Amino acid sequence: MQCAAGCHTACSRCQSKLPGKRCHSCDQGGAYVRCPVMDGIVCSARVRCAYHQHGCPSYVPYYEPRDHESVCPHAPCSCTEPGCAFVDSPRRFLAHLIDAHSWPVHTIRYGTHLGLGVRASEPRVLLVAAEEDEAVFLLAIGALGPARAVSVVCVRANGEAGQQYGLKHWAHASNERAITLDCEVTSSAAPGEVAVETVEFLTVPPAKMTGPQADKEMVITVCIDKSF
């Protein structure tokens, strides 16, 4: 704040304690008003993103950290492997799952079909976009009695604020009509904990599986694209 003469400054707390909230250091004695010079100095102050330890290089205005954090792509995700306390950004999370837990991984390109031979007993497969955003997706397989529920989740904490994705996937067996599902991709910071009931999933009946009973396999084709 500055006095009417523009000669003296005071913080809002101090000026509120002055008699009549008026400057007593000069003859003007006018009330205090906002000081544009000090406002500019204060507003230029920046702080590091709270997720800098997870790889975010951003410095943001001190009064807007929450706005940035709500859309920061480095917001951490949690490993859901039993006994594992790893927490980090999606990109580092991917490396952790591959190196520490040997999760299978496949590269995808947006708008392109990827065929996967997946065992019915395989709980999940990682899909990594070979594009500029390097998004990480988890193809999860859950049991529905003798059938299987196949879903895809984007691994990230701020899904609603970022790029949205559409999904088309289908299961097929030789000489039979494929079962298909088109839907939006759900996001999660703890993808291994996403319940089947909370996402759209493709139901694959035993008739769409091949191989012996103890080692059934499904042929799943996945196509992920950016939603605009």
UniProtKB/TrEMBL annotation:
<keyword id="KW-0863">Zinc-finger</keyword>
<keyword id="KW-0479">Metal-binding</keyword>
<dbReference type="GO" id="GO:0008270">
    <property type="term" value="F:zinc ion binding"/>
</dbReference>
<keyword id="KW-0862">Zinc</keyword>
<dbReference type="InterPro" id="IPR044286">
    <property type="entry name" value="SINL_plant"/>
</dbReference>
<protein>
    <recommendedName>
        <fullName>SIAH-type domain-containing protein</fullName>
    </recommendedName>
</protein>
<comment type="function">
    <text>E3 ubiquitin-protein ligase that mediates ubiquitination and subsequent proteasomal degradation of target proteins. E3 ubiquitin ligases accept ubiquitin from an E2 ubiquitin-conjugating enzyme in the form of a thioester and then directly transfers the ubiquitin to targeted substrates. It probably triggers the ubiquitin-mediated degradation of different substrates.</text>
</comment>
<feature type="domain" description="SIAH-type">
    <location>
        <begin position="44"/>
        <end position="102"/>
    </location>
</feature>
<dbReference type="InterPro" id="IPR013010">
    <property type="entry name" value="Znf_SIAH"/>
</dbReference>
<dbReference type="InterPro" id="IPR013083">
    <property type="entry name" value="Znf_RING/FYVE/PHD"/>
</dbReference>
